[in-house]
Structure formats: C-alpha cells, structure tokens
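To: structure desk
From: M.T.
Subject: fold request, one chain
Message: Could you run this one when you get a chance? Sequence is below, nothing fancy, just the single chain.
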Amino acid sequence: MPSPCDPRYAPVGDVDGALMVIDSRLKAVHDGRTGTDTEQQQLFDQLVASLDLKGVRDLLDGACTLVFMFMKWLRRVHEEHDRDVIEYVVPSLVATLRMMPRSVSPEAIPTMAGMAIAAGTGLSPNLWRRQYGDWTQEEMTALEATALLLAEHINRITGDADFATRLIGDALNRADREPGAGAAEAAGEGFGPGWGEGVE
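Reply: Done. Structure tokens follow.
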C-alpha cells in the first residue's frame, strides 16, 4: 500500500519561482555579500507581494520540490559511496540552521530536519509537512534556508557553484521533453559515478 506521503501525490508547485529565489541567494553568497542584496530583496518582496494565497502555496510547494530533488540527488551520490544520506547530510544541515538564529527560529529546525529526512527516504516533504497543519511564518523562512543549504552542499560536493541550479533546470527540461515524467522523478538522473567524488 503506497504511503500518503508518496511523491506521486505531491503538488510540484512553482519550482521556477522557488529556484529563482534560491539561485539569487546563492549568487549573493558567492559574490561575497554578507547581507541580503537590497535590489534582490526588493525583487523578492515584489514577487511575494504579487502572489495571492494560491501563489504563496505554490511557491512553498516549489521549495519543497527543490528539497526533495536535492535530497534525491544527494542520496544517490552517498549510496555510491555506501553511505547513508541522512547520517551524513541531516546533522550538518541542522547544525548550520542552528547557527542562523536571526533567520531561522529554533522552533522551526525540527520540522526542517523532519522534511529533509522524509525527502531522504523518498517521501514528499510537503505532504509530510501537511500532516501538521498550516505553515508558520518561521517555517517559511527556514524552508528557504534549508533549500539554500542543500543546494550549497551539492555545489561544494561537485566543486561547481552552479551545479545545483543546473541540476534542477536540466530535470525540468527533461520533464518537459518526456510526457508523463515529473520533474522530481527526473532529478538526479543522468549523473553517473564521479559526481560524488567530493563526498567526505
């Protein structure tokens, strides 16, 4: 009997919008900016302000899809090295979130850990989260940070500052070319051994 958190039942959401936010944050980090770029923040604020309730939910679902796709790729890479992605990725994710008290409230961290574990075991993070009611404002910020940290983790493993963004873009393109194939199913496909050589 399939799990109610099976990814096939999950809404994909606005992956493009979520990816735009994460890519913007990654570029800010690599440009050496310690704070949020004012222009980028204004664009983000305008995006959020333009969304209705459905748009906000779609953006959250899109961010959850990113978490799922990143964890799926990380799981494949770690399995190539006979390692458990949950053991090697989730503790460092939690530790980093704890070092971000101005952006991520301590109360939101267990939920982010649960979502990453759900994704790492092949479950939909947004359906897993849905069991516990509506999103809180603190969780929304923490979700963005979680997707950002997973993307940066992938970029460090591959030694390529744009790899995580390209991973999602390629998966979306494959999903468009192959009717019936979802973006989440396409994530991580086509990247053989060698991409995980940086796993420590």
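Reply (cont.): Residues 13-186 form one domain. Let me know if you need anything else for the meeting.
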